[in-house]
Structures are given as structure tokens and as C-alpha cells.
Amino acid sequence: MTSDLVLETRGLVKQFGGFTAVSDVSIKVRRGTIHAMIGPNGAGKTTVFNLLTKFIQPTRGVILFDGLDITYRQPADIARHGLVRSFQISAVFPHMSVLENVRVALQQPMGNSFHFWKSGRVLETLNERAIQILDLVGLAAKADMLAADLPYGQKRALELATTLALDPKVMLLDEPTQGMGAEDIVRITELIRKAAIGRTVLMVEHNMSVVSSIADTITVLQRGSVIDEGSYETVSQNPKVIEAYMGVEAEALGHH
């Protein structure tokens, strides 16, 4: 059964001084699924994310990625294994073109960033691949634009493109729709759905309509603990979850 799990935490605890931000969190992310972490502010979602991407070390507990214990690995090390977080790098170099941004990301896995400039043919191959990825996120027409000149929603799409260029096994998305208008949210949600084909996505997301439309599994956190994990249908019926999202958000849970 474990081979079905690509990412797993067991009894994850993170304390800052006397404050327990994450308390005994066990999450199972199945291969090839879109898995969302939700919860009210202060629920510990970002801390869990930071533990998974090794920005911070856990006080206790174990993190397994593809069967490998990565609890105390370095961030670069786990990225090489294929666990990549988007929107951390703010992957975008503002003064390079959209195409060049994706090309730089495509060079990463080759591990020979500087040698291949010698070969025009390699560059051409990279350009073709970069255009394919830009096409996937709807930015092919903007390939020659400076990244800095893209509107906000398209900058986020470019960040998604550069993350895809790293060809991760598991893509970690931190609030991918934050700060977006309705139109961009719809577009980015669709992009995440496309990006998830053939890989696993774990996302922290506060927008319920996004989560309900694309997540296969949802982990609900409250005050650093998991209060439920399951499909949207299941968790949205759970009285504990509804209570955690009192008021406006409870309504959002009920009617989507």
C-alpha cells in the first residue's frame, strides 16, 4: 500500500518556544492526486509546508518522500529528488523574457548549466520545450515579453511554468490563487489541473471553490492538528470542520 503514497508525514510536531504550531500531524498524499491543505488562519498550514520543504526542521516526527526519509535532508537535496515548491523561488527573473525564465528552469535538472551554451542545437531543443510549457500555461504568445511586464495573474502562471520546467514528481503550491481576481482564479485552477496530469500536487489554498473543484483529497487543519482528511464531500459534512469555518466560510462550505 505504501508505494501508493508519494508523500507522508508521521506525527509531525513543530514547537516555537512554548508554542506548538504543528501538533502530531500525519498526512498521506497519494501518488497522482491533487491534495489540498485547508484550515482557518493560524491552523498551521504554512508551517507544515515549511516543514515539508525543509525551510524549518521538525521538533519531532518523520517525513517520507517516495519511501525515502527526508526529515533532515537539505532543501536542495529534496528538490533534486523531485519535491519542488512553487512560488517560493518567486521563480521569476523580472528582467529576462518569459521564454528565458522557463529556459533557465529547464537547465536546472541538467546539472550542467554552463556547458551547454556552447551548443546551439541544445539551446534550440530547450527553446522548443520552453514553448511547449508556455503553451500549456497559456503564455506562448508572450514568450518574448519581459517577465516584469506581465500582469499579476500571468506572472503567477509563469511561476507555475518555471516549476513545471523542473519536472517535479510532487509540486507544492502555496496559496496559488492568492491576490487574484475571479477570472485569473479560474485560469490558474485550470492550469493546476493540467499541471497535475502525470504528477502529484499538494497545495495550501484558502479559496473553497478552487479546492472543491480540483482537490481529490483535503486535509483540514485547525490549531496545528488534523481534524479531518478525505474528499470535499466528506470533509464539508463534518461538524468539526463546519465549526472551524464559522460564519461566512461555513456558508462557503455548504453552498459551492
Summarize the structure.
This protein is an alpha/beta fold. It has 10 helices and 10 strands.
List the keywords.
10 strands, 256 residues, 2 domains, alpha/beta, four-stranded antiparallel sheet, six-stranded mixed sheet
What does this structure look like?
Helices cover 37% and strands 25% of the residues. It is of the alpha/beta class and 256 residues long. The chain folds into two domains: 1-82 and 172-256, P-loop containing nucleotide triphosphate hydrolases (Rossmann fold, 3-Layer(aba) Sandwich), CATH 3.40.50.300; 93-167, no CATH class. β1 (5-16) and β2 form a beta hairpin. α3 crosses α4 and α5 (152-165) runs parallel beside α6. The model has no long low-confidence stretch (mean pLDDT 88).
